[in-house]
């Protein structure tokens, strides 16, 4: 079942109808439910990048100028929050879910403190994109990640502008999940904008 069949099936409608409660939804459980009966699966804390920095070669002159612990370094990498796999194509997209404070009605501008959204930009770096594209089996121009923002940051007039600017034409690769009691827009975004990358 490719993305076209997934869109026709409208799993976000199936999901929202079957889970129409007022409770706040958890990202992982939303997709575990939505992916039932499909070739898609979600994994929490994927381990494939946990040591990606260990084998990064450094020139001898750099090594001579930095600290080199005895025994070397045997654990150094990253761990995205989730991975979404298409088990038929073996393609994967990696997901970060960032919850952060923000400046909203009744608050003050300093409520928009925090830099989780800035730290998520590491996925835009050339080296990480190259590694993640190779592991996720993506073409060179594809972004192999999706960032989902939650909390007041999704309504902060400054942070929303920053994130929109940073992602620019790659707006499919971020989502402001403003109402975590309603999973329908979140799953619909994935189905319509990201599932084609996994075909």
Protein architecture, described:
With about 200 residues, the protein is α/β, with parallel strands linked by helices. The chain has a single domain, classed as Eco RI Endonuclease, subunit A (ECO RI Endonuclease, Chain A, 3-Layer(aba) Sandwich), CATH 3.40.580. Helices cover about 30% and strands about 15% of the residues. It contains 8 helices and 5 strands; from the N terminus they run αααβαββααβαβα. A 5-stranded mixed beta sheet has the order 1-2-3-4-5, sandwiched between helices. The termini are close together.
Query: What integer value in Å does the Rg equal?
Result: 19 Å
| Strand-residue proportion | 5-15%
CATH topology: ECO RI Endonuclease, Chain A
What overall geometry do the principal axes of the alpha carbons give? globular
In CATH's first tier, which class applies? Alpha Beta
Q: What is the number of independent domains? A: 1
One letter per element, helices H and strands E, the order comes to HHHEHEEHHEHEH
- What is the number of E strands? 5
The parts where pLDDT drops under 50 for at least 5 residues are: 15-21
CATH architecture: 3-Layer(aba) Sandwich
The CATH superfamily bears the name: Eco RI Endonuclease, subunit A
Find the structural class using helix and strand composition. alpha/beta
What profile does the largest beta sheet have? 5 strands, mixed
The CA-CA distance between the termini, in Å, is 9 Å
Q: Into which percent range does the helicity of residues fall? A: 25-40%
Give the overall pLDDT as a whole number: 89
With helices defined by DSSP (H or I, 4 residues minimum), what is the helix count?
8
**How is the largest sheet built, in terms of strand order?**
1-2-3-4-5
